[in-house]
Amino acid sequence: MRYSVFAGGKRLRPILCIASGEVFGAQEDQLLPAACALEMIHTYSLIHDDLPAMDDDTLRRGRATCHVVYGEAMAILAGDALLTRAFETLARNGPESLEVRLRVIDEVSSAAGTMRALIGGQVMDIESQGSEVSEKKLEEIHRSKTGALIRCAVRIGAIIGGASESHLQTLTVYGEKAGLAFQVADDILDATASPEDLGKTPGKDVASGKATYVKLLGLERASRKAEALVSEAIDAARQTGRDVQVLEGIARMFVDRKS
Amino acid sequence: MRYSVFAGGKRLRPILCIASGEVFGAQEDQLLPAACALEMIHTYSLIHDDLPAMDDDTLRRGRATCHVVYGEAMAILAGDALLTRAFETLARNGPESLEVRLRVIDEVSSAAGTMRALIGGQVMDIESQGSEVSEKKLEEIHRSKTGALIRCAVRIGAIIGGASESHLQTLTVYGEKAGLAFQVADDILDATASPEDLGKTPGKDVASGKATYVKLLGLERASRKAEALVSEAIDAARQTGRDVQVLEGIARMFVDRKS
Hints:
Distance between the termini of chain A: 23 Å
Structural class of chain A: mainly alpha
Strand order of the largest sheet of chain A: 1-2
Order of helices and strands of chain A: HHHEEHHHHHHHHHH
Oligomer: homodimer
Number of domains of chain A: 1
Number of helices of chain A: 13
């Protein structure tokens, strides 16, 4: 568990959660447990996705993957335990309002689940390998596989901050657009970055017959799509009328990153 | 998920949760979500334990195991999704008191976790394979691997029923003793039952170098130990001064069962 959680990583979900919460004046100590839970869930999903039975990846966050170091059995259990610990963390810590705390658990369990969510996205991803995938289908996969947890990070920050329902809806759009931009940028990096920069093996998605935006649209159109999504995300965030500079910077960083 | 959850099984954890809650007057609709969550978590742990990288079992609850039918990737994900769905179920349903609801999530996540709990027990079990295991160590493994969730089932029923702390402590002893009796009986069945009765392959634990009570104590002493534990469990339950006939019957059934 520690090996994979403390391997580094960009901590995007925790950062998004905290930034979104701070837009509405939430204190860091109310946000941190949720931020940690998101990173535990993200890390569990990476450990399980990297398993030989799934994507069979050997490099992640610049290190050998969990199962390469500790064996498959321990990697499966480390993932299980991180998912479990995430919910323990959410139940024991964070917002004083028990209603808010339960709502956060509800949002997180739903985003990590099967219906337009993390696990459902991974299932679609596996099932679509080697077959023709339309841009619409690819978007559906990403909205579930990576989008749901990114959107959730933005939402639970806002919920802990006490955002109104209309602000929550607006930030949800921000989270969706930014999440999709992140994934398009991921596909671009997969096609262009070095393994040293990336911390994982590039080109694997294409080699394993997975659909990517670069394969579907070509590099240039994929880049334009990522830029457009970032603009739409920023527009949505600004609609709250709050100071959303940090959220803007994060959305830009999603596509400007080198790893 | 459906294949493994609806494969039958004894539903011991849900039954224990409901029986324990009803001792304190809880209504079934307050108990059922927790009962279902326990069964989802139990089933997820079976799916993952049966994987080739773990115990490599092909028969469970009288059917081919999940990974045999759906492949390893889907079995890992089905397990992940059941664990996730369990927490979603607990967050959305059950006791009206939000405090009780959060406490139940806390208890369940803790029992399903690493410290003297489900996953920790499985880790100890794997690590001890092929080496000499003392009775004390074997008990520690079982208290974690199966005992924690059984104890949790009894506890959360009582918590939902609004049991006092002293009644909760007493029922915790019941849960611990009955849980251990269940495991001793499991080892006896593993040595004596047919695969048809058992719904899984008997003798596998011994063959794979795992310690069992039968191997450590012999059949007769193991039987006496199971009986003694059941008596202690029943004594503890009676100390509540409530009508605990159902809990008594369950504890007896734990060791009298043929499968």
